[in-house]
Design goal:
79 residues, alpha+beta, 4 strands, 23% helix, 35% strand, globular
Amino acid sequence: MVVCNPPYGERLGASSPALRDLFKEFGAFLNKKANNKLEAAFVVTPQPDLVSATGLQAEEVGSFNNGGLDVRLMRLKLR
């Protein structure tokens, strides 16, 4: 299982191109390293729309407060 709490929002700026690039690189990493060994990974983010940059199918599985920010726990389908 992979669970990731990447930098986001307040730390990088909500509209930062670097943030979208980070999610894109995370998706590429998962595709390469999962190698059909993992069924899913999870990512914490206050901006669920950024998860589309991973190129993976995603679904929201929960929400909570993390450091004063409302965030979503997103499940990324790897196979």
